[in-house]
Amino acid sequence: MTENPNPPIDLRSDTVTRPTQAMRQAMAAAEVGDDVYGEDPTIRKLEWRAAEIFGKESAIFVPSGVMGNTIAIKLHTQHGEEIVCEAHAHVLDWELSMSAWFSGVFARPVEAPDGVLRWQNIRPAVRTASPHNARTSLICVENTHNMAGGIVTPLAVAEEIYGEAQARGLKVHLDGARVFHAATFLRQPVAAIARYADTVMFCLSKGLGAPVGSLLVGSAEDITRAHAYRKRLGGGMRQAGVLAAAGLIALEQMSLRLQEDHSDAQAFADAITEIPGIRITHEVQTNIVIFDVTQTAFSSSTISSRLRAMGVLLNGIDEQRMRAVTHFDVSREQCLAAAAALRRAVSATDSQPAPQLGFTQL
Ligand code: TLP
């Protein structure tokens, strides 16, 4: 099969990256075994390195971020309890109500308009068990916050949440799908962020370029228990060292180049900021730019289909807002070309019918 000589500029997500040559070679050469028996040396190495880098006792490799979050929520809660998360958190809006389905918990959302969940927002939502209330057992933090345009939680905010949670016997789980982006922005090692959470889920396949996989890191006891939940969810994989081999490159090498993606996102944001009707919703700190198109003449789905016709893939979150995510498969020039295409898409006067979407497009 030959590569498409003119592939579209794909800013839909940083999940769209394809494995590098180095990853493909490492995958072909990977030493493997049956991981359900704990016998895959490459998986073991990845888990060991992940735990070490995050400053935790142990780690477990899972196929997806959703599975990592699901297992973490199950670990820290009992059926019927409550968890607190930001009102637009991935665990709430984008995981098919998995916390309810698998763990039987009620997610109590807390609005943080700037995307940074703070203890002062969380505190009123925390409940103790009473004849009328179910107990809160877990706080879920998302860093970077996807739907807040990749906003980073400051370390002092994370520290306060963790301190207050510990004082009340609450657990903290970090959805760190893009925690390396947060670490890059903060100029800190990921361990400095992970110390303020009991468990952290991070993705190898978002921005770090691995084809598949996420890790959940935490205490040895929690990760031992996590194995049973992973198996129940169908995530017990066999010779998955072929995936872990790519994951090791993602973890060790690709995590070092994220500033490039952040600079590209900033360049894209700078280029679209003057387009009439476009309003960027959050400060651009990492690799995500969310912008509101309400003041243009078009809905996000119309803009999206116009962009597609110009070779740019960039989708709506809803009819008003769109999201661009930079990654190593798009260059600075392509980001600027996408911005120029967006300018044309929203200034075009022909009326092309919008596709009917029962959202979501992402
Ligand atoms: N996010 C995807 C979509 O699901 C929206 C994306 O394109 O950004 N936590 C966060 C913060 C995420 O952004 C994602 C994926 C996940 C968890 C889930 O990871 P996967 O897709 O591996 O299950």
What does this structure look like?
The chain has 362 residues and is α/β, with parallel strands linked by helices. The protein has 2 domains: 19-255, 3-Layer(aba) Sandwich (Aspartate Aminotransferase, domain 2); 258-346, Aspartate Aminotransferase, domain 1. 39% of the residues lie in helices and 15% in strands. It is built from 14 helices and 13 strands. The protein has helices at residues 21-29, 41-54, 65-76, 90-93, 98-103, 119-122, 155-167, 179-186, 190-194, 220-232, 241-252, 258-272, 300-309, 332-347, and strands at residues 9-10, 58-62, 82-86, 106-110, 136-142, 171-175, 199-203, 214-218, 279-280, 288-292, 312-313, 315-316, 321-325. The strands form 3 sheets. The chain has a 7-stranded mixed beta sheet, with helices on both faces. Helix 1 (21-29) runs antiparallel to helix 11 (241-252), helix 12 (258-272) packs parallel to helix 14 (332-347) and helix 13 (300-309) crosses helix 14 (332-347). The longest helix is centred in the last third of the chain and has 16 residues, at 332-347. The radius of gyration is 21 Å and the shape is globular. The protein binds ligand TLP. Ligand TLP is lined by residues 13, 15, 64-66, 69, 90, 94, 142, 146, 175, 177, 203, 214, 362. Ligand TLP binds next to helix 3.
